[in-house]
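User: Structure please.
Assistant: Input sequence and predicted structure:
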Amino acid sequence: MGTLTQEKEYQEKLFNTTYDWTNQCVQCGYCLPSCPTYASMGKETASPRGRINLVKMAAEGKIDIAKDLAEPIDLCLGCRACEVACPVDVPYGHILEAAKEVIADTQRNKKQPAAMVKNLALRHLFPYPKRMKTIGSFVWMYQKTGMNKVAQKTNIIQKISEPLAQLEKIVPAVESPSERIKEGTVYPAKGETKTRVAFFSGCIMDAVMGRINRLTIELLTSVGCEVVIPKRQNCCGALHAHQGDTEKAKELAIANISAFLESGADYYINNAGGCGAALAEYDHLLRNETDWADSAKEFVQRSKDVSQILVQFGPLPFKKEWNGIITYQDSCHLRNVQKVQNEPRILLNSIPGASFIEMEGADTCCASGGIYNLLHFDESMKILDEKMEKADQTNAAAIITANPGCQMQMSLGIQRKGCSGEMKSMHIVEILAEVCGID
């Protein structure tokens, strides 16, 4: 427990950062059908309007932040589908992250093992590209030597953590570190140069899913983009903001803005819905930072998802057909925050030979939620299993996603459904590269 003075400070901070936003909510309930946790838990405190009301009450000092607010906020997936459904434009995402920051303040001095491990990763791993690359190299060696098969056969990870064991099984094959893209490299356009773009390689994508990054660059150059990999780019800060570490998120945002503005590129491209959402809101994150507010606005205007650029400068040079049914699972942050929903579908519908079938509820969350599926495994799996029932009805041979967390989550769903032999999960870049003859 903090002192009464500290508790008052936390309450005042919550009031100052959220109260005006919470008063925008008219408690109409339009958000309820869009909320995956309300659908799965069936209680008001698991709904957007319920959480907003709790934040408002905590800001007024009517309930305790740590005891009454922390758990309902932590159980939110942060998918932000409620913002799309809201008729009065309540900025739920901003309320959520402001509340998480205050909750993190109340928990900072508690020596809880899980919190300590999480803070260690957020502060001392993700912000350091070299350390992340080292992790990626270890995973590559772990897979290449067959240690992963031994671990799965002996269930050694299962004994440590069931969620970690489940996710370990569906980590994609990691490419050799020698194939990893290098900062400072400029990849020339194939044919006419139509534009210059700077590519955001990310932390987890760069470390573990480097193949998708490499294929992304190949696709961009194939439609006439000159691609530069800015030096000194860093983690986007999404995980930090989602866990209440706003100051670190700001630090990372400033580093990225500086690196990308130096690139001289027309557009700043990402291939991960979650990262892209963080990049697209740098202007909000840095709105009170006088020295960086204008640069943040410029950065946001240039920030695009890879699907937008491929549609704008396409068509892609398809070389073969992809026979079979495909379906698409929206990345919540790509759809709800970046407002990108048509471009991925345009690209998938253009694939020769493929039959695109829209999945019922494609716009609802798969419950990956950054690290939500590690922190709240059972709840995540309940939502995922329901999602897989909808996916199975399409008879698709591939579920296409636009975010690494979604891709891994859907792979886990396929495994849990017992249809690994008939269905697979792919990033949209992978299937587009395949039909363009790019390996």
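The first helix runs from residue 4 to 22.
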